[in-house]
What we know:
CATH class: Alpha Beta
Number of domains: 1
Strand content: 15-25%
CATH topology: Flavocytochrome B2, Chain A, domain 1
Number of strands: 5
Structural class: alpha+beta
Radius of gyration: 12 Å
Shape: globular
Oligomer: single chain
Amino acid sequence: MKSFTIEEVAQHNKPNDLWxxxxxxxxxxxxxxxxxxxxxxxxxKIAGKDATKKFKQFHNDAxxxxxxxxxxxxxxxxxxxxxxx
Length: 85
């Protein structure tokens, strides 16, 4: 899986290019924005950021397994693959 920096994820902060971080994993939600049950505004507010705390407030682990994992594009890490959160 590809490694990204927090700074790289931060560049993807618009509705038509929207990435987030949850538990050190990077998700591309660009194609999901219009389908999100909570609405587009919710995702746009956290675009390009670590959304772990907010995500866990409103979702359980089953949602991540069923809906989230297919959108995972990488992890946060350095060149050696170690987490950099």
